[in-house]
Amino acid sequence: MQLSDGFVGTVGNTPLIRLQRLSRESGCEILGKAEFMNPGGSVKDRAALYIVLDAERRGELRPGGTVVEGTAGNTGIGLAHICNARGYRCVIVIPETQTQEKIDLLRTLGAEVHTVPAVPYSNPDNYQKIAGRMAADLDNAIWANQFDNLANRQAHYETTGPELWIQTDGRIDAFVAATGTGGTLAGVARYLKERRPEIDCILADPTGSGLYRYVTTGTPEVVGGNSITEGIGSSRVTANLAGTPIDDALMIEDQQAVTFVYRLLREEGLFLGSSSGINVAAAMQLAQRMGPGHTIATILCDGGARYSSRLFNPQWLASKGLTAG
Ligand SMILES: Cc1ncc(COP(=O)(O)O)c(C=O)c1O
């Protein structure tokens, strides 16, 4: 028998998809790690699982306990599933700017959801800081703290990185990913660089984020206006991202991301969210820069259904000056 042990045993080991049209067009192997196929539907299932297992191991989370997190959605969704599977209560603090689809799904999964105004990290009422205070006020509770909890990065160092290495038989020339907490890029880049330091590890950044400048100048500094993308971009260097060997950064405009979201849908048959669009747009830019014959991997972070009222709504796109391409 070939069985996976419950939800927890089904996280990870996702397929690596060769994007056929884009590979043909670029002359490179453009590969997308199908993280939308995780059982909770996103790359964040890996971080959520490692954070809970690490807290259990340390004795910080005991049977019947509570997991509290400030999240733009996907980490909360992963945590809600894992809490159900392991018998914990899940409390989520989410900025009210996130899509209704994600907020509704969190409630459907049984999480206690608190929507709060979106304010900068420096404000004491930032959603992450509210989550930290809530957890501190409860017994037998943890604040998952995905941004600075290194169990997040460790998930990708121990699983996503090795999977990419094995799935490409070590023939990977570059890895590119947008970052939210930085866990994915940091864990994968650290692992791949240990295997072969010449592998280019590149950060893709949306406009309105400070990480493009962080990588290219050493100081985080916001460039450009707000982006429609969700779950990625940051004005600060998280503990997960700090010290990661990153070779370069690419800034991707929203229209480019949207164009690739629709190309993935229409040409590859893949229904994905905006961070996947940024990632694939960046992989194609990198292919152009590196020239034909290279193998470039990126992350297909989550599915498109979480964004149907925005990214897949022509009126909403038009209100942002964007088109499906
Ligand atoms: C849709 C989506 N894409 C990408 C990311 C970025 O992943 P990481 O937090 O590992 O940098 C996130 C993080 O929340 C996300 O929700």
Automatic annotation (TrEMBL):
<keyword id="KW-0808">Transferase</keyword>
<dbReference type="Pfam" id="PF00291">
    <property type="entry name" value="PALP"/>
</dbReference>
<dbReference type="InterPro" id="IPR001216">
    <property type="entry name" value="P-phosphate_BS"/>
</dbReference>
<protein>
    <recommendedName>
        <fullName>cysteine synthase</fullName>
        <ecNumber>2.5.1.47</ecNumber>
    </recommendedName>
</protein>
<dbReference type="InterPro" id="IPR050214">
    <property type="entry name" value="Cys_Synth/Cystath_Beta-Synth"/>
</dbReference>
<dbReference type="GO" id="GO:0004124">
    <property type="term" value="F:cysteine synthase activity"/>
</dbReference>
<feature type="domain" description="Tryptophan synthase beta chain-like PALP">
    <location>
        <begin position="10"/>
        <end position="302"/>
    </location>
</feature>
<dbReference type="InterPro" id="IPR036052">
    <property type="entry name" value="TrpB-like_PALP_sf"/>
</dbReference>
<comment type="pathway">
    <text>Amino-acid biosynthesis; L-cysteine biosynthesis; L-cysteine from L-serine: step 2/2.</text>
</comment>
<keyword id="KW-0663">Pyridoxal phosphate</keyword>
<dbReference type="InterPro" id="IPR001926">
    <property type="entry name" value="TrpB-like_PALP"/>
</dbReference>
